[in-house]
Each structure stands twice: as structure tokens, then as C-alpha cells.
UniProtKB/TrEMBL annotation:
Residues 10-170 form the Spermatogenesis-associated protein 20-like TRX domain. One of its GO terms (biological process) is carbohydrate metabolic process. This is Spermatogenesis-associated protein 20-like TRX domain-containing protein. PANTHER family: SPERMATOGENESIS-ASSOCIATED PROTEIN 20 (PTHR42899). InterPro entries: 6-hairpin_glycosidase_sf, 6hp_glycosidase-like_sf, Ssp411, Ssp411-like_TRX, Thioredoxin-like_sf.
Length: 690
């Protein structure tokens, strides 16, 4: 972890954000985002230097050590600018606005994000990482600052005029409307096929991101169309990721992305959202194929998360850094000699060969030789090889615990936690691992208890006992979907009621009744220079795509038309954007696929402890039906379901037997009272590849 306790503390010392605290003893006179900083800029007639990053960002550390800890840079900044630091994870709304500026001005984005703007927050300069001194054709930070200061004094009107034009142009770039039809889904699939890497899986060449939202769409597209290539692309990508250096072969969990085509060399950060999204994708693949390999990979991710990212409250921390002891990836590298020292003998040799570890300065373990091949070359049974490799892995994990760990960012972010809640709930539901469901329920309880305003609204960040930052669209959308998943895994009716309450609040606070879609920031939130509606998926599904997905799910569960109306009126609002670059809107595509294909809504009226009821529920969980939703109506839930799912009011256990009511599309089947009859109607071929 960069930063230190040397020097006079600046105004960041009282902040909760680990990223801001890392800069609390810089010689730069940093301010947190707020009116105090902008008032100072106005009073002293200075431009604002805005630096946005996050605590586990490698290049943020590099720029901090080169520049923000340097007295010379600090002197230039303090004399000519008001310097403001923002944690992008704590304030994704601010980051999104100014990242859009950076993309418009430079054609590229990333972190650290560097913006210079007027005291009225209008930007006129944008960059990402800048070296301290000019080198190799890249203008250094000191030269940039001096040039901007000169222009501020001599050509201020040009700078301000340019800033206004930038904001006006971005404000005019509203979402492109279009017609949300199934043809868009086929276009999205075709584009993913063009981008697919047939040699190593994944999309494009390098850097290569796992893109789990694309994988989930592909699996569901396969279920809809029966196109085997869609499933093959998803499966190959997941297998390559699991075997590559991007996956921590010793301690499990996935790194942020690979810098190479073969998934070998990762950027070593571990983000909570990546763990959640990859676990969801592995679970989806297991549900679709029945292959235990994928469930095992999801189990490994959960093992890492529950071991290393779990908070005492029962929620989950944000991330682990790429760096330890000032070196990126040092914690994760191994030499052959280190393996032999830890284990010794033939087992060390097996592991070194299996995981591609050489005699040099340090290698990234990856699955270089499969257990099957090792079995053929050594004559050792494959099961024994797997057992021995696992024993070595456990020993190396124990040894690695003695190393200096990367910094862990211990913020609890509502939206990222909600993703992990959904991942645990789905995996628990479809694997029968009740511990995952319990963990999802516990984490959801923390979010609902600790990250609330007095009026019931959500808050985005929890740290050191303090909840702060008004909830944004993603917080509401992700949590609504997560609670729907927890409901179908636990059948707790209060969870479903809470999902409905939050969905109603999301529609009211963020919805655009005239233009469709949802704003990132609520009408009563802090108003920035732009009020955005984001639909493009980055590493995470956008707030709008998740809102659409969650509302379609909630409509299928409850039958309440207001959720269908709120979602269906919004698909066209973004169809033009999605049509321009379909694969960059994969979660929107998944939501559109769910909304535009035949759905199956099942209500089981019976007591949860009745073996017949349990058998029906187990039957439903044993096969892959992505468009099926399930309600359980028993004595405990009847009153709540009458409120939130009124179509269940007249459904009851017939003759005292557990009774299943299945509606498919707009037609309902006759109720059935045996698991065998439910299996028969669910097994109808119409359920598949519609």
C-alpha cells in the first residue's frame, strides 16, 4: 500500500475512503470533493485540479509516488490550483461524468483520471496517468500544470468557452432511441462471434477481460436458439479463465484482467464485482450443462471471497491491491525453488510441471499441463495426481500467508455487495449448498440495515461504522435483483416485499417518465454538470441494464403491471445505443432476451416442510430454465403474497396436497398435485429453444 504517515496531514485525513486516506499526508494540499474546495477556487480565482482513482489501482500508486508525494509537484499544484481527490468507488457518479469528458477529449479512459476544470466544475483538460517529467513524447505533469496556469492567466476566455462547449456537446448526446426487437439479440450475438478469440476464448486479443455478462448472455442465447456455438464460446472462455494466470491458482479468486491473449499475465487487482460476476457465469454454465467443473470453479471463488473479503458484519469488502512491498504481483509469484522448499520430493516436481513454474525470478502459476496428461506421462492414476496437486496447493497457500499481503480496501459498497448476494443466492439455490443461501441472506440483511437513510432510501458506502453517499441507480437496481434472487432461494416473503418497495422507490426517484430509462443520480441527489443515463456496460452491467433486468424479473414474480410498464417503456429508449455496439450492452441484451421471449411463472401452494413441496422445489432447481420464476405460497407467506403477488390469492393446496400452478406465456396449465405431473408439464419441449 502506498502512502505514509510522514509530513503534515491535509484535509483528507478525516475521510473514510481508504483511497483518500492514502493521500492524507501528501504535500499536495488536497481537498475532498465538496463546496469548500470550489469556494476556495472561486475566492482565489484558481482552476481546480481533479484527480480520481481508487485504493487498489496500480497506476494510481505510480502517479502518487512519482508526483503527489513530490515537493516540487506539490508546490506547483498548491500555488496555482485547488487540488481535489475523489474515490471513484465511493463516488461513481462523479467518476462517470468526468470519464465521459476524458473519452470525448482523448478517445481513451482509465485511472488515475486527471481533470482540470473551472471553479464552476466545467472541464477543459483531461488525461489519465501522467509522468512527473516529460519523457518519450508524453508531456509530464509539471509541464502540463505550468502550461495550463499560463493559459488560465492569458487566455481564460478560451478555456472557459472550450469547457462550456464540451459540456454542451456531452449534454446533447442523449441516448439513441430505437426499436427493441429480437433482431437486436441476433446482431449482438453476431458481433460477439466476430470478436471471439477461437484459440484462447474470450473477446478481442489484449488486454483481455473475462466479460462474464457476455458469457451469461451467450448461455441464455444458446438456450433460446439452440445455437451450439454460443454455448461453446461461453464454455471455452470459462475454462481458459479458470486455468490461466488470471485465476489465482493457489488462493482462488480472479484477477481483474489479463494483459495478454492467453490469460497468463494478469493485472493483479482482485475486485469484489469480478468475483461476483464470474461466480454468476460459472453457476450459469453449471446450470446449463450440468458439468461439475463449473460449480467447482464457483465454489473456489466463494472460498476466496468468504476467506479474504468477508467483513465482520457479514458483508464483503471492496478489493485487494495488485501491489505488495511496492511490486505489482509479488504476492502471487513462485519459483521452482520456493515450491521445492515448501513441499519437496516428487509432489513438488508434479506441481512445478502442472502449473508452469520455472527456475527464474518468479512465475505466475497456471494450468500448463493437465492431470490427464501427467497421468499418461508418469503412470500415476489421475485421481491420485489431482489429490497430490491439491495437497501441494494447500501447503503453498499456508506458506503464502507468511508473505506481506496486498492492501485490502475495506469499504462496503452496496451495489458490489448486492452482486455478491445474487451470486451466492443463485449458486445456493441451484447447487443445494444452503450455506451460500444463508450467507446471501446475512449480507442482504447488513445492506438493508446499515446502508439506509432515515426515510428508507439507500446509501452507497459503509466504512468504519459510517454509512454515507446517497444511493445511486446501480445501488437500487442491483439490490432489487439480488433480493429477488434471495427470495427464490429462501422463499422469505419479506424479502420479496422489500424488493418491491425498493423497485417502487427506484422508479420514483430515478425514472424518466417522458424519455424512458433511469438517471444515474436521483432528482434529490447532488446535481453534477451532467445528469446521465448510462446504458453501456463496462466491467459491470450498467445501472439501466440492471434496472431493466430486475424489473422484468420482479414483474414475472409478482404480476404487478407497474414493473412491466417501467421496463417495457425503457427498452426502446436505449435500443439505438445498443444497436451501434451490441456486445458492449450485453446485460441490456440479457434483459431484452428475458422480456421478449416466453416466460414461465410457477406458484407452488404447499408447506415448505412437506416432502411433496420440497420435491417439487428440488425438481425446479435441477434443470436450466432461465425464464422460470417460482413463488412458494404457504401459511407463512400467504398474506404478504396477497399484497405483492395478488394473482396468487385464489391459489391453494388442493385436497391438502402441494399444488403447482404453471403459467407459460399468456396461457396457464391445469394445476397438478404430484411432482411427477409437474415434471411432465415442465418437460414439455416448448420450454426449450423457443
Amino acid at each position: 500500500m502506498m502512502g505514509g504517515s510522514e509530513g503534515r496531514a491535509n484535509r483528507l485525513v478525516g475521510e473514510k475512503s481508504p483511497y483518500l486516506r492514502q493521500h492524507a499526508h501528501n504535500p499536495v494540499d488536497w481537498y475532498p470533493w465538496g463546496e469548500e474546495a470550489f469556494k476556495k477556487a472561486r475566492d482565489e480565482d484558481k482552476p481546480v485540479f481533479l484527480s480520481i482513482g481508487y485504493s487498489t489501482c496500480h497506476w494510481c500508486h505510480v502517479m502518487a509516488e512519482e508526483s503527489f508525494e513530490d515537493a516540487g509537484v506539490a508546490e506547483v499544484l498548491n500555488e496555482g490550483f485547488v487540488a481535489v481527490k475523489v474515490d471513484r468507488e465511493e463516488r461513481p457518479d462523479i467518476d462517470a461524468v468526468y470519464m465521459q469528458v476524458c473519452l470525448a477529449l482523448t478517445g481513451r479512459g482509465g485511472w488515475p483520471l486527471t481533470i482540470v476544470m473551472t471553479p464552476d466544475r466545467l472541464p477543459f483538460f483531461a488525461a489519465t496517468y501522467l509522468p512527473k517529467e516529460t519523457r518519450l513524447g508524453v508531456t509530464g505533469l509539471i509541464d502540463v500544470l505550468k502550461k495550463i496556469r499560463h493559459l488560465w492567466e492569458t487566455r481564460r476566455d478560451d478555456l472557459v468557452g472550450s469547457a462550456r462547449e464540451i459540456v454542451d456537446d456531452l449534454g446533447a448526446g442523449a441516448s439513441l432511441r430505437g426499436k427493441a426487437e429480437t433482431a437486436l439479440l441476433r446482431e449482438g450475438y453476431a458481433e460477439m462471434k466476430r470478436r471471439y478469440d477461437p484459440s484462447y476464448g474470450g473477446f478481442d486479443r489484449s488486454p483481455k477481460f473475462p466479460s462474464p455478462h457476455m458469457i451469461i448472455f451467450l448461455i441464455r442465447y444458446w438456450h433460446w436458439t439452440g445455437d451450439p456455438m454460443a454455448l461453446a464460446m461461453a464454455e471455452q472462455t470459462l475454462r481458459e479463465v479458470r486455468g490461466g494466470g488470471i485465476f489465482d491458482q493457489i488462493g482462488f479468486g480472479v484477477h481483474r484482467y489479463a494483459t495478454d491473449r492467453k490469460w497468463l499475465v494478469p493485472h493483479f487487482e482482485k475486485m469484489l464485482y469480478d468475483q461476483a460476476m464470474l461466480a454468476l457465469a460459472f453457476t450459469e454454465a453449471h446450470m446449463a450443462t450440468g458439468d461439475a467443473f463449473y460449480l467447482s470453479a464457483a465454489d473456489e471463488i466463494f472460498t476466496y471471497v468468504q476467506r479474504d473479503l468477508a467483513s465482520p458484519e457479514g458483508a464483503f469488502y471492496t478489493a485487494e491491491d495488485a501491489d505488495s512491498e511496492g511490486v505489482e504481483g509479488k504476492f502471487y509469484l513462485w519459483t521452482a525453488e520456493e515450491v521445492r522448499s515448501a513441499v519437496g520430493g516428487e509432489d513438488a516436481a508434479l506441481f512445478i510441471e502442472a502449473y508452469g513454474i520455472g527456475e527464474g525470478s518468479g512465475d505466475i502459476p497456471h494450468r500448463a499441463v493437465s492431470p490427464q496428461v501427467l497421468s499418461r506421462t508418469t503412470g500415476i492414476p489421475e485421481d491420485e495426481i489431482r489429490r497430490r496437486l491439491e495437497a501441494v496447493r494447500e501447503k503453498l497457500l499456508s506458506v503464502r500467508k507468511g508473505r506481506a499481503r496486498p492492501h485490502r480496501d475495506e469499504k462496503i459498497l452496496l451495489d458490489w455487495n448486492a452482486l455478491m448476494v445474487a451470486a451466492l443466492a443463485r449458486a445456493g439455490r441451484y447447487s443445494g449448498r444452503t450455506g451460500y443461501v444463508a450467507a446471501a441472506q446475512g449480507a442482504a440483511g447488513v445492506l438493508l440495515d446499515r446502508l439506509r437513510r432515515p426515510d428508507g432510501g439507500l446509501l452507497h458506502r459503509y466504512m468504519d461504522g459510517e454509512a454515507a453517499v446517497s444511493g445511486m441507480l446501480a445501488d437500487y437496481a442491483y439490490l432489487v435483483w439480488a433480493l429477488a434472487e434471495v427470495y427464490e432461494a429462501s422463499f422469505d416473503p419479506e424479502i420479496l416485499r422489500e424488493a418491491c418497495r425498493l423497485a417502487d422507490a427506484m422508479i420514483e426517484r430515478f425514472g424518466d417518465p417522458s424519455g424512458g430509462g433511469f438517471y444515474t443520480v436521483s432528482a434529490d441527489g447532488e446535481q453534477l454538470i451532467l445528469r446521465q443515463k448510462e446504458i453501456h456496460d463496462g466491467a459491470l452491467p450498467s445501472g439501466n441494464s440492471m434496472a431493466l433486468f430486475a424489473l422484468v424479473t420482479l414483474f414475472r414474480l409478482t404480476g404487478l403491471s407497474r414493473y412491466w410498464e417501467a421496463s417495457s417503456s425503457s427498452f426502446d429508449a436505449f435500443a439505438g445505443d445498443a444497436g451501434r455496439n451490441p456486445s458492449a450492452h450485453a446485460w441490456y441484451m440479457a434483459a431484452l432476451l428475458a422480456a421478449s421471449t416466453k416466460s414461465d411463472e410457477l406458484v407452488i401452494a404447499g408447506e415448505g416442510d412437506d416432502p411433496a413441496t420440497r420435491k417439487m422445489l428440488d425438481l425446479v432447481a435441477s434443470s436450466y430454465r432461465p425464464n422460470l420464476t417460482v413463488l412458494l405460497k404457504d401459511r407463512r407467506s400467504a398474506d404478504v403474497l396477497a399484497e405483492v403477488a395478488p394473482h396468487t390469492a385464489l391459489m391453494s393446496a388442493q385436497g391438502g396436497k402441494a399444488t403447482a400452478y404453471l403459467c407459460r406465456g399468456t396461457a396457464c396449465e391445469q394445476p397438478v398435485t404430484s411432482p411427477e405431473d409437474l415434471d411432465k408439464i415442465l418437460g414439455d419441449e416448448e420450454l426449450f429453444h423457443k
